[in-house]
User: Fold this.
Amino acid sequence: MILALNGSSVDGSAYTDVVNLARHAPAWLDDAVSAWSTYGLVLFAVLMAVGWWRARRVDAAVSVTALAVPFVVVVAFGVDAVLKLLVREDRPCQSLRVATLEACPAPGDWSFPSNHAAIAAAAAVALLFVSRRLGALAVVAACAMAVSRVWVGAHYPHDVLAGIVVGALVSLLVMSALRGRAQTAALRLAATRLRPLLVVS
Assistant:
């Protein structure tokens, strides 16, 4: 079933307020937010790598959990992508025809839910299973990513909120299911050539 959601009827006015605020903000702030919106997901990849590197010094089961994080993020992205195809909401810059910091995507590049928000939220929740400190940092970064996507004009507020919910929920369900199997997986993998990925020799 295709919903063809008209996002402007949900929170179009809030979106317009944010975009107008961005238009009158200092150039350095817009540049910083735009850079974060475009390249900020790299930070989550770095946090995943750091989480895995530290996990190797803790326990093989923790390492297995850390290694699962990027796969969980891919699953969350997949779920988010399917929802995009089902809902088929036009980008706000197309529906409302407002000037935005980020170039308006071509028609067919759907808006709901936000991929960036889903990926960031999924990574943040999954990292909480590896390290509370890294996870907390990722949660803050995920919130900043969600806000930035509205600021640059790429998404309505409800798009990023839905993305956060999708990413966080998928990550929570998958990581919770994996947690009980991490020790068994660690024992099996430790007996293979993959052992260096789990523990420091």
Summary: The first helix runs from residue 8 to 23. The two ends are 53 Å apart (CA to CA).
